[in-house]
Write a sequence for this structure.
């Protein structure tokens, strides 16, 4: 029996794939009597209990993707790797491996959504790895609660997409959107003051907070929940409304597709802490923790004396000439983060063949990009050499690396000039942001962020907050501050939002958190010194040609 290869495997040459199983029965599952019947023709690895498909997916016998097939060019040999880049099978000869014929009629790879899945916008519905996803027309991908967890990557005019999570790890490949069911948009938006469980059943649509209050989507209280019994009672605490396994419900978060966040206090961070549906119940959000995610990258006052370079050594005595490129431009704001994860642009497939540097788990020594990220069990981390820096004699311009919106996945290696306006985003304008007016930050894109919006640049600054992922536990650093906003967000809270005290507070925290890492400390102090401890400064941006000082560190 012959099986055609997809184009991605044509480099193997013409191979006749002979099925070694009998004509009347496929190999059985775990030695039982039930035959394994994949939805597509697949190579079968019985010792490992794996199936490898012609689109390079590798799944377990239940159909859950566990890795990818990596062909060795010019041969019939392939390697099976997990999502962290580790070898599951060192080599397999595809010409000698059993092929199990697929039968699409016996498989239901993407069931229709049940009544509990809803969206304010039309969205494609995808089930992968036993999880539910929504794919929106702008190619953002969310969980069933609407919190963005990834992005769908496609070529112009094609309905075929690859779905990846925020760290660049594949969720599902070669998905034809035309074959997916659609969840019709119902226009319902949720007004929340903190993370809340979402329950939709035959009785209604509810938000459930950990303090047991239950509201309608518009925030109107209608009752109380009992997390032990799962019962939801009316405001009289007598009349039953409905019941469910409350702790298993999806969690609505600020920043979700259908969520309107009503913050109790505004500060310079720009994103709500992220919880997954498997985490503990949402905690009541205090005014110090319910802030939008931050990534401010602020210069010091232009009237002050020049500071020494934030890089490890002076580079030159004058500012490089920055040439506009005629590409993207607009307005937005700068936030900050440092999660230690291997940047998305370090993967060849994300970077167009020009990957960013990868360092070991301490961020010091450059390594190859095949070991996976520390945030998903691998060994690759962000290089601490990619801290923000200045050049001696060039006081009004600085240089840094940043994450861009996940929807802008093709921006790896591109550079942008941010010219600060003196205003702060999220009503955070103060003397610190005003002092930034006119200063320029030249950034180079090395990462994508699912919580990064259009016009926002999330600047890599040690101590800026770990955000959605935290790979910094192995660094040996001190406390990194608030998950979103980091050390500066802590200073805002501790000083009762007195901007004049931010810089001295942040300087003290940088020195303490990075006392054993001089390079990371300099990157942290960049926020205190050149940026003057300004949170979420607004800017105008334009794409520029990348200067050598950034290209050398990319």
């Amino acid at each position: 029996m012959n099986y055609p290869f997809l184009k991605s495997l044509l480099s193997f040459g013409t191979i006749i794939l002979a099925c070694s199983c009998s004509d009347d029965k496929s190999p059985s599952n775990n030695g039982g009597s039930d035959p394994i019947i994949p939805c597509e023709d697949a190579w079968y690895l019985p010792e490992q209990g794996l199936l490898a498909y012609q689109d390079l997916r590798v799944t377990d016998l239940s159909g859950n993707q566990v890795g990818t097939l990596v062909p060795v060019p010019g041969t019939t040999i392939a390697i099976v790797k997990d999502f962290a880049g580790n070898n599951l099978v060192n080599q397999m000869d595809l010409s000698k491996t059993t092929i199990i014929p697929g039968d699409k009629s016996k498989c239901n790879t993407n069931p229709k959504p049940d009544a509990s899945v809803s969206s304010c916008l039309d969205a494609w519905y995808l089930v992968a790895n036993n999880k539910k996803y929504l794919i929106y027309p702008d190619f953002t991908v969310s969980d069933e609660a609407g919190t963005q967890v990834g992005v769908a990557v496609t070529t112009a005019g094609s309905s075929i997409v690859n779905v990846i999570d925020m760290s660049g790890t594949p969720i599902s490949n070669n998905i034809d959107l035309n074959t997916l069911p659609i969840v019709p948009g119902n226009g319902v938006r949720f007004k929340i003051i903190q993370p809340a469980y979402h329950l939709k059943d035959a009785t209604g649509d509810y938000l459930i907070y950990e303090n047991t209050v239950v509201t309608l989507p518009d925030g109107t209280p209608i009752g109380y929940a009992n997390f032990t019994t799962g019962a939801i009672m009316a405001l009289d605490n007598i009349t039953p409304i409905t019941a469910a396994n409350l702790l298993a419900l999806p969690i609505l978060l600020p920043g979700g597709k259908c969520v309107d966040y009503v913050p109790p206090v505004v500060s310079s961070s720009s994103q709500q802490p992220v919880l997954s549906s498997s985490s503990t119940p949402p905690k009541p959000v205090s005014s110090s923790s319910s802030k939008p995610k931050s990534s401010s990258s602020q210069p010091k006052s232009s009237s002050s004396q020049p500071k020494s370079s934030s890089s490890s050594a002076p580079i030159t005595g004058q500012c490089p000439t920055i040439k506009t490129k005629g590409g993207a431009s607009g307005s937005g704001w700068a936030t900050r983060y440092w999660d230690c994860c291997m940047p998305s642009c370090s993967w060849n497939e994300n970077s167009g063949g020009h990957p960013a540097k990868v360092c070991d788990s301490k961020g010091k020594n450059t390594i190859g990009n095949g070991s996976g990220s520390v945030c998903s069990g691998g060994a690759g981390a962000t290089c601490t050499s990619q801290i923000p820096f200045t050049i001696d004699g060039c006081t009004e311009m600085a240089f840094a690396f940043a994450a861009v919106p996940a929807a802008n996945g093709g921006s790896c290696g591109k550079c942008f000039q941010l010219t600060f306006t003196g205003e702060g985003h999220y009503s955070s304008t103060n003397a610190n942001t005003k002092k930034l007016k006119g200063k320029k930050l030249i950034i180079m894109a090395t990462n994508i962020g699912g919580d990064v919006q259009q016009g926002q640049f999330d600047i890599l600054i040690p101590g800026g907050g770990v955000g959605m992922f935290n790979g910094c536990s192995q660094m040996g650093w001190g406390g990194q501050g608030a998950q979103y906003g980091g050390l500066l967000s802590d200073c805002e809270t501790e000083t009762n939002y007195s901007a004049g005290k931010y810089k001295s507070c942040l300087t003290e925290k940088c020195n303490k958190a990075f006392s054993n890492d001089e390079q990371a400390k300099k990157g942290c102090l960049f926020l205190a010194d050149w940026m003057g401890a300004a949170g979420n400064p607004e800017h105008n941006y334009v794409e520029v040609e990348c200067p050598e000082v950034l290209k050398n560190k990319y």
